[in-house]
Amino acid sequence: MLRPISTIGDYVLLMRRVLTKPQKGKLFWQALLFEIDQLGVDSLGIVAFISLFMGAVVAIQTAYNIDSPFIPMSMVGWTTRQSIILEFSPTVMSLILAGKVGSRIASQIGTMRVTEQIDALEIMGVNSANYLILPKIVALVLINPVLIVFSMWLGIIGGGGAMVFAKLVSMNDYLHGIRTDFQAYIIFYALTKTLFFAFIIASVSGFFGYRTDGGALEVGQASTKAVVVSSIVIILFNLLLTQLLLG
Amino acid sequence: MIEARNINKFFGENNVLQDVSCQFHPGKTNLIIGQSGSGKTVLMKCLVGLYEVDSGQVFYDGRDFSAMDIKQRKEIRQELGMLFQGAALFDSLNVQENVMFPLNMFTKKSSEEKLERVNFVLKRVNLENRNKQMPSELSGGMKKRVAIARAIVMNPKYLFCDEPNSGLDPLTSNLIDLLIQELTYEYGITTIVNTHDMNSVLSIGDSIEFIYKGRIWWSGNKEEILHMGNKELNEFVFGTELTKRLRQ
């Protein structure tokens, strides 16, 4: 019972060290650009692949499940749009990124811990938590919304593509559905979630990597814990934010 | 001078350091020796503040390090360099960037001045023209030398070396020992070397603290160590086949 509370306490204490002004601005900006490339640009491929296919699957399933002649086929476009923007891109994509990016962050920082590189930073007088984790958090908070908007766009295109190739719904109907009853607020809702999820992925993974102790086995365990805990926290925050923003 | 006064350190119920008091003098290579698990590394980590002591004090030239806050400790830490057992070079940075890191972080020198300083210390450790190599492309001895270059690039007053010879062949090991000793004499650094290598003890041990089961068991120097009647010390010193034969 006490262990989760103690872990949350350790996390808060670490974040107090992380969320401070960088010791050297120039080095921070260099690290930030590097992390944007490593965590964001490097994830474009997997985001594109999954989004296209998931969009297609959502559209096909919707099209096959519309039996009633009273429901217009443009509903396929509407449903695809709503599913992609409200849930698939911000939440499911963030869960996938928690696996890809989270394990990378935890294993990188964990390896630095067990090979004494973090001790070397501390000995020099560097705030190692701030130096290593802050650029990753800022980079992911900046790049995650871009990835998610990219995912939304590709998901909707994937759905349209599937409709055209499978000849289930005409492109006109699909596009009509995409435009029907569009409220910009759902984009705000989705991007707000995205920002929270980005912070959760980078900070939780950084935390588990930073407190690694031991060797290669423990680095692997830290990486797994980072992904599992990030995913659980994302799911919990998804519920909370959805109730707050849409309730 | 670095002084440890009555240091105690516990890990759970295990009292790893028991009332340890010792002094480490400037311009000398001060060795902490002892068997694996005797508490050498814990003592060194307590001295540099990587572990908090449970009781006792650490003084850097009379300044009470254990009573300092984080900001004051940072100032002291900029006066010390450390060579880690595994070198602890940053994997993502090349040799030049590794050595330049403290200069980038803590000085306002121009790029030319920093590069000049980096080249100077790399030359000092006999690693010229290796600037662009990555740590993964270096041998164990080279990594240690880059780590020494990084440790001395800020002109430290205190140099800590944790098992500088581990994993090295006897010749390379000897080169590293002599390099540490030369730098100590040349710059008047207070150097503390953690080792269980008897070659190092006999070649650079200006001052030696033998630690046994978490206590300082014997203090002396390389001239005295071979002639002591202390049972535990003799078991350590003459523990290898080579030293046993030499003794006979």
Describe the overall structure.
The complex is a heterodimer of chains A (247) and B (248). Chain A has helices at residues 2-18, 25-40, 44-65, 75-114, 117-124, 128-166, 171-179, 185-210, 216-246. With 247 residues, chain A is mostly helical. In chain A, helix 1 crosses helix 6 and helix 4 runs antiparallel to helix 9. Chain A is elongated. Chain A starts with a helix and ends with a helix. The mean pLDDT of chain A is 94. Chain B is of the alpha/beta class and 248 residues long. In chain B, the strands form two sheets. Chain B has a six-stranded mixed beta sheet with strand order 6-7-8-3-9-10, sandwiched between helices. Chain B has a four-stranded antiparallel beta sheet with strand order 2-1-4-5, with helices on one face. In chain B, a hairpin with a 2-residue loop joins strand 9 and strand 10 (215-220). Chain B is globular, with a radius of gyration of 18 Å. The chains are: A mainly alpha (247), B alpha/beta (248).
Question: What's the SSE blueprint?
Answer:
The complex is a heterodimer of chains A (about 250) and B (about 250).
Chain A: H1 2-18, H2 25-40, H3 44-65, H4 75-114, H5 117-124, H6 128-166, H7 171-179, H8 185-210, H9 216-246
Chain B: E1 2-11, E2 14-24, E3 29-33, H1 40-48, E4 55-60, E5 63-64, H2 70-77, E6 80-83, H3 95-106, H4 111-124, H5 140-152, E7 158-162, H6 170-187, E8 190-195, H7 198-204, E9 207-212, E10 215-220, H8 231-237, H9 241-247
Parallel strand pairs in B: 3-8, 3-9, 6-7, 7-8
Antiparallel strand pairs in B: 1-2, 1-4, 4-5, 9-10
